[in-house]
Amino acid sequence: MPRKIYDNEKLRPEALRLRRQGLSYREIAKRLGCSVYKVHELISDHESPRSRLKQAIELADRLDALASKLKGLEEQISKLQSFLSNVKMLEGLAGEVLRLRKEVEILNWKLEVLVDNIGWIQGSVAMRLGDDQDGCKWLDGDCYCTCWSWDEKIEGWNMRPDIVEGRTVYRLNVKKHPLICTACSAYEPRGQ
Hints:
Blueprint: H1 8-20, H2 25-32, H3 36-47, H4 49-129, E1 159-164, E2 167-172, H5 178-182
Antiparallel strand pairs: 1-2
């Protein structure tokens, strides 16, 4: 009978795997369909004390290499966690920026309204004080209102005393306090 030819490179890993599971040479031979001698030939080099020592050294080297790779991976994970933490912080900041942007838009709109109102008030004051036209008929030459008067002088306001029907009253300089003039219901242009 011709001698059977085996592919040792295919059989050896399987024989070693079965041996690590605790099977005997005879049981391995039965599963692989070869002789006990062939099993001995395939795995005996891997079971001798010298071979075991060599395997232990190779295993230790592989473990060292894996430990080094693991350390590198741990460093990368740490960097990634730091990066993700920064990303979460930036996401929070981005949300805050959007909220602030909306608030700025609202403030800009309110500012535009305020500027329009100030422009209207300035125009009204200018008209009432005589900067654009003849002004209000109740203003004297020094811009004191002769329509309204106060019985007492108000602290901090530019007022001057005047005598009306034998008593002292105080007149307000509306040039220095123009907003008072804008609310006046008695405004009448000069010349009417």
